[in-house]
Design brief:
alpha+beta; 2 helices; 6 strands
């Protein structure tokens, strides 16, 4: 693994997401073309907690999957040659086999792990795992595709 960390400012230079929809706070390590580990610190101030669910706040499963997809997008971006003018935008085009095993609540540190299964013609298939304190919270197969000039 490459011991390369990235804070939120560096992440924002690679993907277009912004608060409140940027769901990756830090990249902790990555191997270009292979894998990436990242973190989402789940705060009580997240906008969705006021309605999901009042008195028993739980991070929506679709947002956990979105966090995994954003981590996958970061892995794709970090795996490309360093030419910002030719970098495509990666968009989520599929989710398969999503499974949710435990609730993610305010105060949790959501650890995101992405591993590349295959790439072909601008498309990337990843296996993603989201964990809290070493316990799997969710898994999903994520599929993304490149758009734009660099595709």
């Amino acid at each position: 693994m490459t011991d390369t960390t990235m804070d939120v400012r560096a992440i924002e230079r690679l993907i277009p997401h912004r608060y409140p929809f940027l769901l990756v706070d830090r990249v902790t390590e990555f191997v270009p073309g292979e894998s990436l580990s990242a973190v989402k610190n789940v705060s009580a101030g997240e906008p969705w907690f006021s309605g999901h669910f009042p008195g028993n706040p739980i991070m929506p499963g679709v947002l956990i999957v979105e966090a995994l997809a954003q981590a996958g997008c970061l892995l794709s971006q970090l795996s490309l040659p360093d030419d910002p003018e030719r970098r495509p935008l990666y968009v989520l085009v599929g989710v398969e086999d999503a499974r949710f095993r435990q609730a993610v609540v305010p105060g949790d540190r959501l650890d995101l792990g992405i591993r590349v299964e295959k790439t072909r013609r601008g498309m990337w298939w990843y296996q993603g795992t989201a964990s809290v304190e070493g316990e799997v919270a969710a898994t999903a197969r994520i599929i993304s595709a490149a758009t734009g000039d660099g595709a």
